[in-house]
Amino acid sequence: MVVVTGQNKVSGNPDDAMSSSDAEDDFQEPATPTATQAGQALPLLPQQFPEVVPLNVGGMYFTTRLSTLRRYEDTMLAAMFSGRHYIPTDAEGRYFIDRDGTYFGDILNFLRSGDLPPRERVRSVYKEAQYYSIGPLLDNLEDIQPLKGEKVRQAFLGLMPYYKDHLERIIEIAKLRAMQRKARFAKLKVCVFKEEMPITPYECPHFNSLRFERSESETKLFEHHCEVDVSFGPWEAVADVYDLLHCIVTDLSDRGITVDHQCIGVCDKHLINHYYCKRPIYEFKITW
């Protein structure tokens, strides 16, 4: 008869069981997953690009030389295709850029040969050049119409106090009135004046200025707010009232708002003695 005791179940014999030191030696840490195993993991080595690069920009296909993409060092495209960053590819092996490709051809044409887009595409290409940080293209576009004229226009509007705030106020008032009256249009009164008014025979403007030296008491006598919804002015620039009116209409039109305006008279507010305000008042009809 063979008697088996409980002590024989766990043997201290090195041939029957692995020692703790042996277990430590045989244990191996899991291998670091590769890009294929992990799916989303990025390659550790710098990415290599062919001399001719196929591109998929937002679903639109392009093909260009690697040297074209790297033409200007301080651009996003040069950085993307420098090898320092991983660029994913689509099912056909094209390098994918997650950006609308409508104007990417204009970007490539400039990088290839310095060609600029036609006037009707300048604004849109300018936005793409900003995104890709292509400084030389931005400089060239700013020197042609319509962006060249826009720089002059913005310089003028920079002299106009609270221009953007007044523009937003016109939109808000017109929207509120149209909704209250259940109509597609609304009318509001806008005062646009260039100079401080009125000019008395005894006043002379400051040198190279449209403002006048008045005492505090005189200023209060002439101060008042015309009975209008929005008032623009005064400003110190060569541009006149009609220039500002054109800017207002243009900016509203760019937002898809139809604007008609006409002068309906002047402010007849009596100020002092025989002096009246005489600032021109315009009626704006805003159609949604």
UniProtKB/TrEMBL annotation:
<dbReference type="GO" id="GO:0051260">
    <property type="term" value="P:protein homooligomerization"/>
</dbReference>
<feature type="compositionally biased region" description="Polar residues">
    <location>
        <begin position="1"/>
        <end position="11"/>
    </location>
</feature>
<keyword id="KW-0963">Cytoplasm</keyword>
<dbReference type="Pfam" id="PF02214">
    <property type="entry name" value="BTB_2"/>
</dbReference>
<dbReference type="InterPro" id="IPR003131">
    <property type="entry name" value="T1-type_BTB"/>
</dbReference>
<dbReference type="InterPro" id="IPR011333">
    <property type="entry name" value="SKP1/BTB/POZ_sf"/>
</dbReference>
<dbReference type="InterPro" id="IPR000210">
    <property type="entry name" value="BTB/POZ_dom"/>
</dbReference>
<feature type="region of interest" description="Disordered">
    <location>
        <begin position="1"/>
        <end position="35"/>
    </location>
</feature>
<protein>
    <recommendedName>
        <fullName>BTB/POZ domain-containing protein KCTD7</fullName>
    </recommendedName>
</protein>
<keyword id="KW-1003">Cell membrane</keyword>
<dbReference type="GO" id="GO:0005829">
    <property type="term" value="C:cytosol"/>
</dbReference>
<dbReference type="InterPro" id="IPR057891">
    <property type="entry name" value="BTB_KCTD7"/>
</dbReference>
<dbReference type="InterPro" id="IPR057890">
    <property type="entry name" value="KCTD7/14_C"/>
</dbReference>
<dbReference type="Pfam" id="PF25611">
    <property type="entry name" value="KCTD_C"/>
</dbReference>
<keyword id="KW-0472">Membrane</keyword>
<feature type="domain" description="BTB">
    <location>
        <begin position="51"/>
        <end position="149"/>
    </location>
</feature>
<dbReference type="GO" id="GO:0005886">
    <property type="term" value="C:plasma membrane"/>
</dbReference>
<dbReference type="GO" id="GO:0060081">
    <property type="term" value="P:membrane hyperpolarization"/>
</dbReference>
